[in-house]
Automatic annotation (TrEMBL), chains A, B:
Residues 423-606 form the Phenol hydroxylase-like C-terminal dimerisation domain. Keywords: FAD, Flavoprotein, Oxidoreductase. PANTHER family: 2-MONOOXYGENASE, PUTATIVE (AFU_ORTHOLOGUE AFUA_1G13660)-RELATED (PTHR43004:SF20), TRK SYSTEM POTASSIUM UPTAKE PROTEIN (PTHR43004). Transmembrane segments: none annotated. Belongs to the PheA/TfdB FAD monooxygenase family. The keyword Oxidoreductase applies. One of its GO terms (molecular function) is FAD binding. The keyword Oxidoreductase applies. This is FAD-binding domain-containing protein.
């Protein structure tokens, strides 16, 4: 390496600016206080094609960064799914239409189809507000992790050394750079250079299912061209996804022998073109016709691999995320969702550790939480892809997949596919010891959406909007009813406890006098907007007038109310609900067990005011 | 005038860039096809103070220009109103809280408090997208209207001559300009130069009520500081309006003798300051305290005038709008709302006439509709201001205003104050002949909000969002149920009629083959999303797949449905609902009376393809 090589230091280096890398970069930038850099070897971002679907939970996650609204406007919302099967007269016919999302608690009860580029733009614009831009075209050449245990354990050290090459450099001396990073995130796709450089293997197999994909504006008489349509025909399976504006995407099942080169065992795209894929689609779609109204926007052919990386991290200093650690079929629309949710899970942990809030031990939960999910995803995908790609049951094929079988799988899969069913297992940050005090706020699952009204101004607010992904823990205090004088003693006692320098709210702050910046507090009272005086809530429970909510309907009587009952929380005692920065319930506990809440935080937070 | 004076020609010249002028400029710019200019004599726009409240109907109107969303985010939503009255122990106490909006059909069931400047910014940004910017500081010096009747009647003439002075001109030759305009709108405030130049008088009186206004961030123990609060005390009346962020506005009743200069009869601001106004407020607010946390942001003192201009137009070539034609008390929060709704009413009419779509006779309806409203507003204001400014009824003042009296007025006034109760009387564009075919869509009132689902993709849509203020008439065709074969003959017959060159849809287009650009068509079928095939709707009723709606619930079953019944429309026949470009129902008619619909349009639209 020439002497002139530049050297630099960074808290976090992200390799790859696809959905996983951008989610990570934006999340860390929003959290603040972390020196982060994101590189990509492509000279510019993609514009068409690629991933296309956001699941309900992913929309909730994007909204926690303030990014969902513009995507909801731009994208195509999929509310219903139409199922087509072989008809008696040949060809296909509509069997049924059903809601595409069966998960009742979804805040956004639909899928959103939208080109990957629009989603990337939302991140890029948000990052720009925080002065973070993708550095491109820049390629990593070498990565080296220190083997010195002391070095690895030290919070102030930069144990990862990455050599970067700037691909558009005009002078050799500008080309190379050595970056010393505290943490590296490899979000560099299915062929991840980071993964390979670290020697992490992928476990699993290539399947025999081969698919063609075509994006276009169609001319058709197919009645469900604007719904998601799952078509099982005697001539193969077809999935239709309506896209933004008048576009649609077709996923067309192709025959292995037509597509796979027998010599290499790989998909050979050379003999194919979109018109040939459409020819296959037309056979499945008979008696309906379909043709492009204008040029085909994008197309591809691929074989499904179903694999999970053997590990997601090395020494909790280098992580891989997204397609770099799991590949699966696109039929369930999970790809981009799983990827973004990987780094949504990881980013706040890195941010808290870099800022000195949390102990590095929380980083272990990234692999335990996300690799478990990735394996479940592959298992799910195997079952689902088999059903979808299988031949339909007809009078002459009694072994085929019946509509009832497929529809049952569709329904039971709904919770998993939507992302809402996801439940992280017990860990240092997931403690279900007191689950019974809030039976329906499942510890490890995302906080349920619910409308409350603000006590001071009766404005209805969605609790999710008070849980932004800003790397802070949210302490929701369900104070219960304040109508009975008898309860005030209990409430005041807790106020004193939390207001003391040893209470968990102030224990982690620099001075012990104010609440720690890593906590945000919301208070929910079982009271009525017509009567309740928000000033009666002790000061420690109302850091701002907007933080006191009532479990009541809004002024129209149409929104809100019933949360205590819905959540299974008693209104005659005080209950804590601890929501992690990523929106998942970390712990629920009665105020009488505040010692356990203290222990929960003690197990992974750093006592800043003691150590400084 | 020197020889060098510039001369220019413009379709519409707007004088004044306050809310009325900006609404006008933006509406005409959005409509397109009109050469419009807007001037203001102030060198820059206001930044603090002034008007502060948007009523529910005004929010709907702003949303029809796509402008409500950002204001809803920025503003303070007022959902509840708190009423305080003298207590037994001296001072005041909470009597009741009630929903601030009693109008059940409001799409946005709250008031929005926000500084006028934010609302002006929304218009200014939107106008910029259409390449229209406020030309300032520019002042009109003379205005002259041609007296030549032929000139006044000709569509191609520019009968208004206005001399403008550029106030920041550095060279004399750049200073003056003569503008020849087809139409001039004077939106230049209560002291309107345009009004005075035209010799239009104001009818009505000055009242004896004097008010002080203070904007600040308060330190207070008053429990309703974030609600709208109407306070009647023995020491005078007080109104609190919570503003954006933590700010509030106080409207404080002052004593006439303390404020009005006996020599001039005018309000004298010189002896006053915000602390003196606050001293008065504190007496009304006892036993609660209030003080500014930081500097006072803005303050003023004024006496209420209740006046309406004797006419709103001269020759339907020059119009006045907003404060230029009506002044009243701010207590009912109508000022900015009335002003913006004036030009919302006027702009589309001017745009249609300039584009050659409509006959100039529709311009007459501006005065007939808006002057009637202004007079109603003053009548309302007189009753309401008397009640609000009057002494409260107490044991030692039995003649005072009781809470019950005030609250009853508050409730009955709700529909008027919200702007939703407004009903325009019969005219060339308001025809109630067939009201009975859609009993609850009152002709002359704004179209009711209602959620439908799109037939093609089951996406729930609010009908208001399909009725943008784009200067086009919206034809909503309620086709009824299509399940019975027997109805298809009727539907197909109407399709043929509307598809013919003499049907009203095509009659006004250039070629008679396509629909006129001045119409937008929406079709609503009484059908179910699980079964209905949107392709079964005849082509003339579905200009795009997104225009066919179902009166059904969405996939969650939580939104939509029941519109036929709610509107009082029969699902066994076809019903037309004609919505004016400003969102008001112009006519309802059964398809069997399509001749009357033809006549409705013939009475004010221009037959372009015949005359060209």
């Amino acid at each position: 390496m020439p002497l002139q090589t530049r050297e630099s230091f960074v808290d976090v280096l992200i390799v790859g600016a696809g959905p996983a890398g951008l989610m990570c970069g934006n999340a860390i930038a929003v959290a603040g206080g972390v020196n982060v850099r994101i590189i990509d070897q492509r000279p510019s971002k993609i514009s068409v094609g690629h991933a296309d679907g956001l699941q309900p939970r992913t929309i909730e996650v994007l909204q926690s960064y303030g990014l969902a609204e513009r995507l909801l406007r731009e994208g195509s919302q999929l509310h219903m799914c139409a199922f087509y099967n072989p008809s008696q007269t040949g060809g296909i016919e509509l069997t049924a239409r059903a809601p595409d999302i069966s998960e009742r608690t979804a805040r956004f009860p639909f899928k959103l189809a939208l080109y990957q580029s629009a989603i990337e733009d939302a991140f890029i614009d948000s990052m720009a507000h925080h002065n973070l831009r993708v550095d491109r075209p820049v390629k990593p050449l070498t990565i080296e992790l220190s083997r010195d245990q002391e070095h690895l354990r030290s919070l102030s050290s930069y144990p990862v050394k990455v050599t970067l090459a700037r691909l558009d450099a005009t002078i050799d001396t500008e080309k190379l750079e050595v970056v010393h990073a505290k943490y590296v995130v490899g979000a560099d796709g299915a062929h991840s250079w980071v993964r390979k450089a670290l020697g992490i293997t992928m476990d699993g197999d290539q399947t025999n299912y081969v698919w063609g994909v075509v994006d276009m504006v169609p001319d058709t008489n197919f009645p469900d061209i604007r719904n998601r349509a799952a078509i099982h025909s005697k001539n193969g399976s077809l999935m239709i996804i309506p896209r933004e504006h008048d576009k649609v995407r077709l996923y067309v099942q192709l025959s292995e022998k037509d597509v796979v080169d027998p010599e290499t065992g790989r998909v050979s795209k050379t003999k194919w073109n979109p018109e040939k894929i459409l020819e296959v689609a037309r056979k499945s779609l008979h008696p309906f016709y379909i043709s492009p109204l204008a040029d085909i926007e994008w197309w591809t052919i691929y074989m499904i691999g179903q694999r999970v990386a053997s590990r997601f991290s090395v020494e909790d200093r280098v992580f891989i995320a997204g397609d770099a650690c799991h590949t699966h079929s696109p039929k369930a629309g999970q790809g981009m969702n799983a990827s973004m949710n990987d780094t949504h899970n990881l980013a706040w942990k890195i941010a808290q550790v870099v800022r000195g809030w949390a102990d590095p031990s929380i980083l272990r939960t990234y692999e335990s939480e996300r690799r478990k999910y990735a394996k479940d995803l592959i298992d799910f995908d195997k079952r689902y892809a088999t059903l979808f790609s299988g031949k339909p049951r007809t009078s002459d094929n009694q072994d085929g997949v019946s509509h009832e079988e497929f529809f049952k799988a569709f329904e039971t899969a709904g919770s998993f596919m939507s992302g809402i069913g996801l439940r992280y297992g017990p860990s240092v940050i997931v403690n279900a010891k007191h689950q019974s005090c809030a039976e329906n706020l499942i510890v490890g699952q995302r906080m349920l959406p619910q409308v409350f009204v603000r006590a001071a101004d009766a404005r209805p607010v969605e609790i999710h909007d008070l849980l932004p992904a800003d790397a802070r823990f949210k302490i929701i205090v369900f104070l219960g009813s304040m109508e009975e004088e008898s309860r005030l003693a209990e409430i005041n006692a807790l106020a004193n406890e939390l207001g003391s320098p040893t209470g968990f709210l102030r224990r982690y702050s620099m001075d012990g006098q104010t609440s720690s910046p890593m906590f945000d507090l919301i208070t929910i009272v079982a009271g009525k907007k017509e009567k309740f005086n928000y000033l009666s809530v002790p000061l420690v429970f109302r850091p701002h007038w907007s933080k006191v909510l009532l479990d009541d309907t809004d002024a129209t009587g149409r929104k809100g109310g019933g949360a205590y009952e819905r959540f299974g929380i008693c209104s005659n005692s005080i209950t804590f609900v601890i929501v992690r920065p990523d929106g998942y319930v970390g712990m629920v506990a009665p105020a009488t067990a505040s010692r356990d809440v203290n222990e929960y935080f003690t197990s992974f937070l750093t006592l800043r005011h003691c150590s400084s």
